Amino acid sequence: MRKSLFYSISLLFFVFPLLFLVYKSFFGVWIWGNPAPVEPSLRAWKLLMKEGEFLDSIGVSIWIAIVVLAFNLLIGLTAGKVFSFTSFRGKSMMEALLLLPLFLPVLIVAIGLHITFIRYGLSDHWTGVALVHLVPTIPYSIKMFKSGYERIGTKLMEQSTILGGNAFQRFYHIELPLLLPSIRSVLFLTIVISLSQYVLTAIIGGGNVVTLAMVFYPFTNTADEAVMAAFSLVFALIPIMLYIILEGCLKFILPYQHLGGRKLH
Q: What is the mean pLDDT of residues 62-87?
C-alpha cells in the first residue's frame, strides 16, 4: 500500500510534468477550439540550438557545478566531522555563522563579495562565480554531513583505531561507505543550486561568464511556450545526467557500497 502510494505521488508530481514538457516541446500549445496537433515538430529545438550562447553555456555551467561540488564535498566532510565529534568554545556561534548566508538577501551577499573579488581579480571570471556559488551551497553540505557523522557515531572509528587502522583507512573503509546517503544528497542538491544561480552569476560574472541560467531567464519573457518547454527540459535533464554519471563514479570509488547501502536503507 505504501509503495503504491509512493509511486502514484511520484508519477503525479515528477513524471507527469516531465512528460508534459516533452509533449509541449514537440507539439506546442493546444488552444481550445483548434484542431489538436498530431505531427511532432522540431521547431522549438531548432530555435533553441540557434541561440548563440546556449551550447557554450551548458559546458560552462557543468564545469562550474563540478568545481562547486568538489569544494562542497571537501569543506562539508571536514566541517561536518569537526562539528559532530569535537567540542570547543564558540561552536554554536560558528555553526550559526555558517548558516547565516541562507537568511541574508542574495543581493547583499553578492554586492559585498563583488567588491572583494574585484580587489583580488576574481570578478568577471568563472573562478569567482564558482566561489560565490559556495555561499548558498556550503551551509546545506555542512548540515548534511554533520547529520551523517552523528548517525555513524564514534564507536566504529574507535574500534578501527584499536585494531591498528590509520586515519586514511578509517576514512576510506568506514566513513565514506556509511556517508553515502549524505554524499548523494550533497551531490544532487549542490548541482541543482549551482545551475540555478542567476543573480550571483550575473553580478560576479559581470556578463562575461554565461551560464545556462543566464541564458534561460531572458527566455521566460518569450510567448513561445514550446521553446520554453524545450529549454526547461534541458535545464532539468542536466542535473539528472550529472547525478547518474557521478553516481556511477561512486561505485568505483567507494568500498562496500552494496553492503553500506543495504544496511543504511
A: 91
